[in-house]
Amino acid sequence: MTLFTDFGLAQPILKALSAEGYEKPTPIQAQTIPYAMEGRDVCGIAQTGTGKTAAFALPILHRLSETPKPRKHKSARVLVLSPTRELASQIADSFKAYGRNLRLTTEVVFGGVTISRQEKALMNGVDVLVATPGRLIDLVDRRALSLRDIEILVLDEADQMLDLGFIHALKRIVTLLPKERQSLFFSATMPKTISTLAESFLRNPAHVAVTPVATTAERVEQSVIFVQTGRKQVLLETLLRDPSIDRVLVFTRTKHGADKVVRGLDKAGIVGAAIHGNKSQPQRERALAGFRDGTCRVLVATDIAARGIDVEGVSHVINYDLPNVPESYVHRIGRTARAGATGLAISFCNDEEKAYLKDIEKLTRLKVPVMPLPEGLPAAPAASESSDPRREQSGRNGQQQRGRPAPHARGHQGHGQARSADPNADRGPKRRRGRGGKPAGNGQPQGGQPAGNQQRPAQAQRPAQGQRPAQGQRPAQAKPAGQRSEGRRGDGAQVAWLEKSPRRR
Ligand code: AMP
C-alpha cells in the first residue's frame, strides 16, 4: 500500500496532511504524485471528488519549497487554471491548507469582482496563482501580470473549460507561457477534442486515470424512498424483514443517529451494531467481527467509521440519512459493489434532503429511481409523527414512478474499480456543494442534529398510510428478491414493491 511518506514529500507538507486527517493517498494521488515529483508532465483522467487537487498541489508545493526563490513583481511561479470561480477558490484553499507550514503565497483571481484588488494582490508577485481563464487574460492585458516566469502550469477540469467556451482563452494563454515548464492536465473525460488540447499543452506526458466516481454509481442498483424523518426507523425495520438483505450497511449522518437506529432495531428484535468515532476500538472490532461472520446482519455507520470497513459481500447499503456531500454518497454505495460485485443501495430522503439528492444526481449524472413506501408501512411512533403520507408517496416534483420495479435484487454486471479511499467522509453537517470544499480535517465535527430532530411538527395530522388499510393489502413483509410482490397503494396506483429490477432509468 502506498503511503504519503513514500513520495519523499517535504516534512512540512506531510505535517499538513496529518493535520487534514489524510491517512493514505487516493488512487489518483498514488498515480500522479510520483510522476509530478520527477518533474514530468501528466495527463490525468480524474473527476472531482477523487482527490485530484492534492494530486497536483502536493508535488507542486514540494517543488516550490525545495527551490525557494524571491517573488517577482507581477508574476507567479505556478499557474492553476480552473473553469469556475468556485473551483478556483477551492483549489486555492487546498493549496493554503496543504502549504500551511510553508512560507508560500497563494492568490486566486476570477471574474465578476473588481479587478483592482486583484491587480494590487499581484503587484509583489505570488508563488501560486489560481485563475479562471477570462480574468487571467484581462489581468495580462492590463499589464498587471506576466506569465513569463511560470514554472508549473495546471489545467484543471479541461472538459468543463471547453464546455464553457474557454478554448480561445486557453490557446492564447499557452502562447504566453514559457516553453520550458511542467504541465499537469486533468479532465473528467478525454474525448478527441480534449486530448488534442492536451497535446498542445503537454510534452511527453505520463498518463494516469482513475475510474470516475460516477462509474461506481452506475454499477450499483439504486433507489430512493421519500419518507418523513419520523417514519425512517419503521421503514428500515420493514425493509430489513426481507431475507435477501443479508449483510447491510446503514449510513447515518451522525453518531447519535447511528446509536438511535441500533436502539430501535434492538426493540424490533433485529440484531444490529453501530460503528462510529465514539466507540472504543474493542467495540468497533466486535461489531465488525459480528458483521463479517454474519451474526450481526446490520451495521450502522457514520461516513468516517465506514472508511476502514472493507467487508466482502455487503448486499445492501441503506442511506438512512442522505449525505450532504454528494461524493460521500458514491463512496457509501460503493461499499456494496466491491471488486466488481454488484450492489443495491436504497436511500431514505426527507423533504430537507431533497436538495442533497439533487446534488447527488448531478454528480453521478443518474436519476435515482423512486421506490414507493412499502404498503402497510406502520405509522411513526406518536412522538415523532410528522408525516404527510400523500407527500411521501409523491416522488421528485410530485411525480410518482408508477409501477417502476424497485431496484432491489441483484443481477447487474459490475465493471470498473471502486475508489479505495474515502476522502469525503465525516465532513460534518454543513452542506457542501459540488467539489472540494473544506478538506476533511476542517469539517465540522460530527454529531450535529440527531436524525430525529429534522422533522417538522405535523400541521394537520392525517392517518399514516399503514393506518388506512388499502384494498388487497398484504403484510409489509417483503418478498425475497426476485419475487414480485405487487400491491395496490392507498391511492389505487399499482406498485411493484421489492422486486427484481431489470434496469435503471
Ligand atoms: P478533490 O477531488 O480534490 O476535490 O478532493 C475531494 C475531497 O477529498 C477534498 O475535500 C479533499 O479534502 C479530500 N481528500 C483529498 N485527498 C484525500 C486523502 N488522501 N485522504 C482523505 N481525504 C482526501
Automatic annotation (TrEMBL):
This is DEAD-box ATP-dependent RNA helicase RhpA. Residues 373-386, 395-404, 451-484 have a biased composition (Low complexity). InterPro entries: DEAD/DEAH_box_helicase_dom, DEAD/DEAH_RhlB, DEAD_box_RNA_helicase, Helicase_ATP-bd, Helicase_C-like, P-loop_NTPase, RNA_helicase_DEAD_Q_motif. Residues 372-505 are annotated as: Disordered. A motif (Q motif) lies at residues 2-30. GO terms for cellular component: cytosol. It comes from Microvirga lupini. Its EC number is 3.6.4.13.
